[in-house]
Amino acid sequence: MNSQDSIIYMDYHATTPIDPQVVDAMIPYLTTCFGNASSTAHLFGWKARDAVEKARHQVAELIGCSTDELIFTSGATESDNLAIKGVAYAYRHKGNHIITSTAEHHAVLDTCAVLENDGFKVTYLPVDKYGMVHPQQVRDCITEQTILISLIYANNEVGTINPLAEVGKIAGCQGVLFHSDAVQAVGKIDSDVNRLGLDLMSLTAHKMYGPKGIGALYIRARKPRIHLAPMIHGGGQENRIRPGTLNVPAIVGFGEACELSKTLMVDESERIAVLRDKLLHALFNRIDHINLNGHPLKRLVGNLNISFEFVESEALLASLDNIALSAGSACTSGAVQASHVLLAMRLKKELAHTAVRFGLGRFTTEVEVDQVIDAVVKEVHRLRQLSPLYEENISNTA
Ligand SMILES: *Cc1c(COP(=O)(O)O)cnc(C)c1O
């Protein structure tokens, strides 16, 4: 077994390391500034409250909203649940129909499934072969009963970016609320809620170099003002929508991570795109029967989802024991079933079972990319030598 230090981390969609600058910002709130942000009678409380409000401002700046439109949650799973169930139960008198897609994260899909058991009707829009939803299809399935559209912004498995701004226009015209799970996009591409026409947006810190267990939900306060039914009940924190003592150090880290991403976004994207192109071109030049999954252009720069035909992804990952990679999505990689996103894209089974997700990010270096290229090329060739199917295919086509 390798020590963790000798392993190359290339799984930035599962989680990201915390940026050292974020850690520095958090430390005072883990030590001396330990106050409860709801304590209004003394300096400990005031310092904590000020730190929370500064962080709220930093998050708001990144997504172009006001601070009164953001509430902190435990992460995107909670934000997705709160947005979808919150709208469903607050707007039930208006209708019972929700539109989403087949390529969503489980935090959205499973929440919708629970609502179906409670009398809501959910349309799961098909995606195209790149994993993209088409705005016209969204328009076509809106009915008098539709209260919410929920679509992922950038796909966590294949990196495909959905045309949210176009869907936002449609939703706005039809008076249907529009939510997005924007976890993989925020801090990496422009995620301005007004440009995208969003009423609700889910974020999480740990996918953007912040700590785990802290996220946010953007809730539009004007034109229209959105009401949500809370999922948990208790104190008055976060406008009573999400009560509970605020996790001040994590919130401070989240705010810092947002400000950092906003500053670094343009240069970082360019740098990562260069590394991504190097990885992509080297693999395609040196390996045959290889397929890029997801949209060729409209994708996150840090994502490459690639199928190495004839090589089961689980076998490849096991042989690449000094590289941290993922087969399909991390949440389902324990199970040997093909990813629901790849199947929704109608990828052939052979390609779905051989897909590997490379996630590059802020701390990925060119040296690491070179090592990954050599290791993947070597192991794919080695495993194919052992594959009778591959040998057969090659002799047939020779
Ligand atoms: C990671 C992820 C989530 C879950 O976020 P948590 O903060 O870990 O709950 C939800 N949606 C997408 C697209 C993700 O990538």
Write up this protein.
- The chain contains 13 helices and 12 strands.
- The relative contact order is 0.16.
- Helix 1 packs antiparallel against helix 8, helix 2 packs parallel to helix 8 and helix 8 packs across helix 12.
- The strands form 3 sheets. It has a 7-stranded mixed sheet with strand order 2-8-7-6-5-3-4, with helices on both faces. Strands 9-10-12 form a 3-stranded antiparallel sheet, covered by helices on one side.
- Strand 3, helix 4 and strand 4 form a beta-alpha-beta unit.
- The radius of gyration is 22 Å and the shape is globular.
- The structure holds pyridoxal-5'-phosphate.
Overall outline: globular
Number of contiguous helices: 13
**Uncertain residue segments:** 329-333
The total strand number stands at: 12
Oligomer category? single chain
List the helices and strands and how they pair.
Elements: E1 8-9, H1 20-30, H2 43-63, E2 70-73, H3 76-90, E3 97-101, H4 106-116, E4 121-125, H5 135-140, E5 146-152, H6 164-174, E6 177-181, H7 193-196, E7 200-204, E8 215-219, H8 248-286, E9 290-293, E10 303-308, H9 313-319, E11 323-324, H10 340-344, H11 349-352, E12 355-359, H12 366-385, H13 388-397
Parallel strand pairs: 1-11, 3-4, 3-5, 5-6, 6-7
Antiparallel strand pairs: 2-8, 7-8, 9-10, 10-12
The structure holds pyridoxal-5'-phosphate.
Pyridoxal-5'-phosphate is lined by residues 75-77, 105, 107, 152, 156, 181, 183-184, 204, 207, 215.
